[in-house]
Amino acid sequence: MKFLCERHRAWLSRNPGELLSGWLRTLIEGRAVAAEGHADKAILYFGNALDMAEIMMSHGATVDAQQRYIDTATELMQVVWQCRKPSTCQDLFAVVLNRLEQEPVRLFLPGSLDALYAMALGSVPAARTAGPSCQSDALSD
């Protein structure tokens, strides 16, 4: 599951100083779009933010980098879940676990994966039970 195009991914990998501010800006935009009721568009923002968090994680295993990756994946999965795409939630959970398994050490907080796991199994996200609508196929099941 990749959201950033190869050109942007390569540029960000070469310019890691731009990652944190870009990630934060993209995450804030995703939240704003979701709050306006456009979960389908928010998927793209959160997906790009997840890719940026993954690139930051690849630049060094830190608690912050791993936690940022998990937290971003959780926000992405919340809007994917709202779009009623259960198999995409399961796929996203598998992608996140696979990526974390590549880390030399697991530094993230205990229980961090609980919300992702619950949504992958079809449980209602704790943060939002009703919300943005999904009018396009940002992700197809």
Please, could you describe this protein's structure?
With 141 residues, the chain is mainly α. 63% of the residues lie in helices and 0% in strands. The protein has six helices and no strands. Helix 5 runs antiparallel to helix 6. The longest helix has 20 residues. The radius of gyration is 14 Å and the shape is globular. About 4% of the residues have low confidence.
Rg from alpha-carbon coordinates: 14 Å
Derived from helix and strand composition plus strand pairing, the structural class reads mainly alpha
Number of helices: 6
Mean pLDDT: 87
Shape: globular
The helix content is: 55-70%
What portion of the residues fall into strands of 2 or more residues?
Answer: under 5%
Sketch the topology as an H/E string, one letter per element. HHHHHH
Largest sheet: none
The N- to C-terminal Cα distance equals 13 Å
List low-confidence stretches. 127-132
Number of strands: 0
List the helices and strands and how they pair.
Layout: H1 6-14, H2 19-35, H3 39-58, H4 63-82, H5 86-101, H6 114-120
Helix pairs in contact: 2-3, 3-4, 4-5, 4-6, 5-6
Keywords:
141 residues; mainly alpha; globular
Question: Nutshell version of this structure?
Answer:
By secondary structure, the chain is an all-alpha fold. The chain is built from 6 helices and no strands.
